[in-house]
């Protein structure tokens, strides 16, 4: 990911993060994918009514799908409203899908969505990461590092 892409993500008004994923997994590689949405889903995302808690991706017939993403029904939607927790197709090129498919064959690797955002063209995008699960001691180490950073920030603010 280059600096221009990072700047666009920071400017995005909607940034829905999967905070639990960074605690549970080591990120090996990241990709940005588009999402196939129906009806009122984009309106709900633009209002920030989406969640990436307990989501994961799987590959089926050469297509990447995200499972468990919750996009709340649009308040002003009528009979045409969408399902909140349906499987949604992600848009990646064939080379990226093949790379992910080969990598997930190894034990301990999975694909997790890390960030849902709106790009500068108004389209919903998802950052997904090829991830390796952390062991219990890795999680404790992560908590310790986080706590140490907090203490250092407090010490700097006092001076």
Automatic annotation (TrEMBL):
GO molecular function: RNA binding
GO cellular component: cytosol
InterPro entries according to UniProt: SmpB, SsrA-bd_prot, SsrA-bd_prot_CS
Location within or outside the cell: Cytoplasm
GO BP annotations listed: trans-translation; trans-translation-dependent protein tagging
Keywords: Cytoplasm, RNA-binding
Keyword hit for Cytoplasm: yes
Pfam families per the UniProt record, alphabetical: SmpB
Gene3D superfamilies per UniProt: 2.40.280.10
Role: Required for rescue of stalled ribosomes mediated by trans-translation. Binds to transfer-messenger RNA (tmRNA), required for stable association of tmRNA with ribosomes. tmRNA and SmpB together mimic tRNA shape, replacing the anticodon stem-loop with SmpB. tmRNA is encoded by the ssrA gene; the 2 termini fold to resemble tRNA(Ala) and it encodes a 'tag peptide', a short internal open reading frame. During trans-translation Ala-aminoacylated tmRNA acts like a tRNA, entering the A-site of stalled ribosomes, displacing the stalled mRNA.
Similarity comment: Belongs to the SmpB family.
Protein name per the record: SsrA-binding protein
Biological classification of the source: Bacteria, Pseudomonadati, Bacteroidota, Bacteroidia, Bacteroidales
């Amino acid at each position: 990911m280059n600096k221009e892409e990072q700047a666009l993500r920071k400017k995005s008004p909607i940034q829905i993060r999967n905070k639990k994923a960074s605690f549970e997994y080591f990120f090996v590689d990241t990709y940005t994918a588009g999402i196939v949405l129906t009806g009122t889903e984009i309106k709900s995302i633009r209002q920030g009514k989406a969640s990436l808690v307990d989501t994961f991706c799987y590959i089926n017939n050469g297509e990447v799908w995200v499972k468990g993403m919750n996009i709340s029904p649009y308040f002003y939607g009528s009979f045409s409203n969408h399902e909140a927790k349906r499987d949604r197709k992600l848009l990646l090129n064939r080379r990226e899908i093949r790379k992910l498919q080969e990598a997930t064959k190894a034990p301990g690797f999975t694909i997790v969505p890390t960030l849902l955002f709106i790009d500068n063209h108004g389209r919903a995008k998802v950052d997904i990461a090829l991830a390796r699960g952390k062991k219990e001691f890795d999680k404790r180490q992560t908590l310790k590092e986080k706590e140490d950073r907090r203490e250092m920030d407090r010490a700097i603010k006092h001076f």
